[in-house]
């Protein structure tokens, strides 16, 4: 065990390297007494050449900082073999954000939740630095560590304060690490281009680095990309210094070619539209070179706090089979929510049917409720949006799939690993799309269930109400008859006539509505016709939940990654034996085969299956929406009848009260019988009404 | 690569051993053309000494078999260096059932679903053997492989047909593998005890092995355990041959001590009570030595089919915070379900409140529905059972936790790995209990939500109905007044009196009920008092969901397993360097520390927290149950009032119809005003009614 080193309380093995930098290396070690795993930073001979106070500054900075989002200092001890001081820190088992972004899974950036976590933790860590009057000066993904706590939660933590300085301490800074892509243009000028400049670096050199880092996290790419990459230093400097306000990326696609500027995040970025509209101005603010418009730290904290405190509501827009994330201020209400939905889906507010947990959202959320008090939604259990206006269902437009790399047949240990990595990256993109289609499948089905449940409740309540009104109407007619007879004996008789005629008029109209409701109840509640239609149209469909497309995709991506890892190991070995070369060639065959399989799964299986489901859904919704519209009309009519009935009854009561019981009686030949003319009119009206419900 | 071997289309490395047996070894290999991973069985020199036809029989058996639950034969090829034939089979990446049962996670048997999967697949594989007229003769967990398909599903497959014979081929069989625990007593006698016996082995030698295997899978232990284990052959033989019918296990706990017989599965077995009642007779049938009572193969298939076709309904019994699994025949109905619940919980049928998806189960399931058509339940989304009789809530009794092993301080590479494994086994048991408590936490909360939602729906509907009846009552009173006035003018007046008095009587009684309903609606729907009480009593409680106890337990068990693996590697190394010995000692410290932590988490954190929750739930349910009982009384009363009202109205109509409009009028001094006496009686009645609702 010649690789074992130690200090008073810790040992570490120099073969388990966690990271390497200009001043030293970081190894995984353990506490000799407890067995606790730690990270040990040792310094190389070069670093010891630095002035003593410069060396001490990293220790001093670390000792000052105590925050959940700063990697915790456990001890500073002496290497037992006289190699100088070592820094013992808590171990961040998730690696650095650099490693995470370097993984082919994240070639197009991190998922929304992880992006928000980085944003929150980076901001909180930076605030702690700021509160301690420190500038980090070397912020970049490699210095942001992913700590996984014992309860399985991710905490991002800042580390490596080798370049940190007290604010106003304007000592020359030289980027030792070759990660100049994240440097503020002024810093870049001095550290990379070695120009003398007379400006002092304020804390916002860190803000710029945060901006570049966040862009990288959101998209998987750097925002400023000169052709040829890092070597093209002049163009890099030009891009960052020439860029206009509001521009958040600049790319040079050919040698000496033009810079393509953009003020928006690229389409392949995974963030939701709702979050993009919040993040884009943040990035523009951070990547602001112009001193006058530069954000202050406080402004940065404030803007991030505004984003992070928002309430996210997950909506599934059924007519477009699309998940929509709506970011609301905590005190915004359902009207604001509907507004925001309109902006993101173009469904007008009055045409939005919003369902949650089998009922209208408004049954749960009062108009005065603030978004904090809304029910909790998730991507899997969202609010379902149906358009009352549009009975079609369309799949969302999809970006073209990135191309799988082409492998040359000869073995090249140098290239093959990179090509396999590129294949993994496409494989992951295929898997993400398959997962999205699978959740579409699930959400379409849930959306149908919700709509049916809502209709069943609506129709059942409507039928109950109708039965009650029927009962009331019968009683009122009897009542009217009694009052009429009384009227025959009194002088108030003439006032009764219009009331009675209205009442008689009400009855057959109401009966038509009641009959329609009974039929609807029979068809859509008792016989469950909407469910039947859906089930029979979906019968035997190869939907991705049923064909288990997601676990299949997971399997294929894992195999792609296995091959990539094999080729990576081969690259590390450099020269292969004859046998190893055979295995190397086999892995390339597997990459091609598995790449092909996952692509086929997406394009020839899952995608057409979901398209077919969307067609079934469209057919089903044409009926369901008609039923819904009909219930709306019927609800209104039944309410009208109820109001009219109550009104007529009140009038009857009024007349009856005014009647003098001792007045003389008059007979009425038409008692209890409608005139022939009245009957004809009624039949005509009924027919018209029936037509209205079944149009 | 001296370890690389090959055949025409396959290569394998002799360092990647999957398994070793008496006739040969199984290695992981790959197809040279496709890179597909396979298992390659090679034969050792000893096996080649067997007669050629015996050697060929394994190949012949394999070639005959084509079934999902038999490991697939891919090829039989010649070793390129002349070592004889090799069998190439599909690779089962999940290892053998022996490996699975050997894992400390499964020290007390597999979980219910996995048990059922083994049962199903083992039975289907055996059926295929039987259909091909084959007896396996060496069935045991080591010959049952876990195949994980590309879509992530587990398929168990039979393998190793080295000992398989055609039925009636009664050739002597010698257990070469030393796994005699699974042998039928007759086989044991001949193969292990080397006695000459004159009985022929029928297919049910396999049934016995299946019985022992299933007992092992269900409990993690062998059913027949002589003191001293395998070496104690005579006792082993005694146990299996002397055991009575119905006995499924026999254990000897001390040297030459008595055998403890059992007819039931042990209490530590994880299977649900519902499943245990089905599996115990199955095991008793399989482990039947007595030739007269021995099951036939057909009987076995039939019994397993009966078990597997059952519908499982998951119930959470809130008053005992216990999950209950009910196994129903596919054509059984809700009455059978309630019967079965009574048997498993002792809650009488008429006292069972069953809720699913926020409503009474009966709203979804008609009494004629068969269990196949019941809504799908899962352990996380069960039917909630509340007792209408018992307003208390108690945690279920818990078995004592197995003891963590004590580590001697000196390093013993031989023992330490075994002790660490035992510690892992206890750690896994702690984790399982923490997970159970966590799901109790979740289910108690969901149960409360469901009950509240059900009450809100009930009260809301009741209020609606009450309002309708109020409206109807007002109208009927007006109507009565009109008829009364008519009556004053006619001779039918005297018939009216009792009807009117009943109607006047109804009004104040109904008003009391209506008032109570309105108050209940205000308190429990508008003000959501039940929710408030629950939230405020739960406020700040350390429930395991909130403290993330489950992921913590997962973390600690993973650490325990890491240490176990480290100590296992040390055991394989045998002699440790000084440094390695230090690390070895550290791992022991970690085992103790992490073992202690997971135990503390269970006993001092999670368990008291859930006990406290159960107290909150009990307090809450005392109120909630009262409210529920009250709504039941009110529902009945309101139905009564409605019936009475309709009845009175019909009588009024009848009288009115019979009245002759031209009769002379009579005045009634008491018109519209109740007598002093009647008023007194009414007030007394109302007070009584109020008391009834609020007792």
From TrEMBL, chains A, B:
UniProt lineage: Eukaryota, Metazoa, Ecdysozoa, Arthropoda, Hexapoda
Matches recorded under Pfam families: Pkinase, TBK1_CCD1, TBK1_ULD
GO biological process, one term: positive regulation of gene expression
Major localisation: cytoplasm
CDD domains, sorted: Ubl_TBK1_like
Organism per entry: Ceratitis capitata
Keyword terms of this UniProt record: ATP-binding, Coiled coil, Cytoplasm, Kinase, Nucleotide-binding, Serine/threonine-protein kinase, Transferase
Binding site for ATP: 41
InterPro entries: IKK, Kinase-like_dom_sf, Prot_kinase_dom, Protein_kinase_ATP_BS, TBK1_CC1, TBK1_ULD, Ubiquitin-like_domsf
Coiled-coil portions: 631-658
The protein, known as: Serine/threonine-protein kinase TBK1
GO cellular component, one term: cytoplasm
Top-level taxon of origin: Eukaryota
Domain Protein kinase intervals: 12-317
Subcellular localization: Cytoplasm
GO MF, one annotated term: protein serine/threonine kinase activity
